[in-house]
């Protein structure tokens, strides 16, 4: 489908270019106009989160190549929703919605399953939430996510072009929702009708479990509305970010974070 108007290599370049340029723009803007002004040592904080992200690329890059091959191969035997013979654009929209629904379910499972929370809590242990937090995931969370989503994508008949298009749309949204930028409240309220916003995701990074077990959406906020997990608060002055007892500097070191899920 998508290769009719844009090629797979073009989509990849567009995705990498968008991810880096939007991320850098948000990082600069958060420095100039932050929502939480108490954040210090931003370069060191970015170095830690980007080191964790670089490790994940060792999984994501080969996984992307393998997934492109396996999704192409599986389509020769099973077309998934292709059986409905929908126009390609409608089929692409439906597949992108299904992928985003899976991302919501997967994120929620990470909060509601003790084993998965061990890995996902590394994302939540960042007490200085900013755009670089959106790349801070334990490598086991990435690995399990890749292993689970492959058969699901095969089942719905997604191609690598759908996955790249989804990533292209979703990545700027997750960069936006993690960023520590200050925007007019009315803008956040309007944006949250469609996408999860910074004010929503800050609550998702609250130290309180009653608050961080909410707002699981990645690209669209509709799933949180549909499944009753939407939480909004327009004043976050009293909000404490991160996890209890996890902000000590020795716990916020690369190897400590990588080993933390395996501790009793
Ligand atoms: Zn979470
Ligand atoms: Zn987050």
Notes on the structure:
It is globular, with a radius of gyration of 19 Å. Helix 1 (8-32) packs parallel to helix 6, helix 3 runs antiparallel to helix 5 and helix 3 (88-112) crosses helix 6 (160-178). The N and C termini lie far apart (48 Å). The mean pLDDT is 94. It has 264 residues and is mainly alpha-helical. Helix content is 61%, strand content 0%. It is built from 11 helices and no strands. The protein has one domain (2-262). It has helices at residues 8-32, 42-75, 88-112, 114-124, 139-156, 160-178, 185-191, 198-204, 209-212, 222-226, 254-259.
Q: How would you describe this structure in keywords?
A:
264 residues; binds zinc ion; single chain; mainly alpha
Helix-strand pattern: HHHHHHHHHHH
Number of strands: 0
User: How far from one another are the termini?
Assistant: 48 Å
Q: Profile the largest sheet.
A: none
Total domains, how many?
Answer: 1
Total helical segments: 11
Fraction in beta strands: under 5%
Detail the topology: elements first, then pairings.
Blueprint: H1 8-32, H2 42-75, H3 88-112, H4 114-124, H5 139-156, H6 160-178, H7 185-191, H8 198-204, H9 209-212, H10 222-226, H11 254-259
Entry summary:
The chain is mostly helical and 264 residues long.
